[in-house]
Each structure stands twice: as C-alpha cells, then as structure tokens.
Amino acid sequence: MTANNKRKRERLRYESVVTLIGPNGTASRVISRDINLRGIFVETEKKWDPGTPVEIQLHLNDEPDVQPLSIRGYVTRATPDGLGIKFSELGFDDFLTLQRFIASRRNALERQF
Hints:
CATH superfamily: predicted glycosyltransferase like domains
Helix content: 10-25%
Low-confidence stretches: none
Number of helices: 1
CATH class: Mainly Beta
C-alpha cells in the first residue's frame, strides 16, 4: 500500500451514471470512477468537506425497471476530480447485490487474462 493509496480494499473500476444526493436534498447525476463494498469515488465539481453526509443511488445494470441501490454515506475526501465516499448505511440485501456484482465483474476481468 503506497502513501497515496491508504485503502484497505482494492476498488473495482466502474464507470456509470449515479445519482448523488447532497445534504440539502439536491440530486445531481455524476459519473462513478471506482467502487468496492465500502465506498465509491464519483467525478464531480462539488467540493464538500469530509464528513458531509450524502446518498448515492446506484444502478448496477442498464435496465431502467430495476430499482437502484440507495446507499447512505459520507465524504471522506475531496479532490480536484471528485469525491471519495464511504458507505455508512447499506441494507443487507443491497450489500449482497453489490457483493455479487463486484465479484462477477472481477471474475469477468480475470477470465480475460
């Protein structure tokens, strides 16, 4: 682990449109960059302070009829590119869905090599 990367878990590259809901309830569509079971990085021009509570609505596939995962979290870091967000409230079913999604994406990547 380098000084610049203090994460305990490796993140999966995942670029998708997600909805970011800020502390005032305002929703905006942003692009995710990477994700793991503990958090997500989103590209945005918002510069919220660490500790700012947020909600992420995340579609794990392109099917519009499937309910998005709704995950509460808080900002852990702000960079010129976006926000690192740690998940703080993730329901058990949503956790399992996210876990299966990440595992399937990793398995697909491993099969390529």
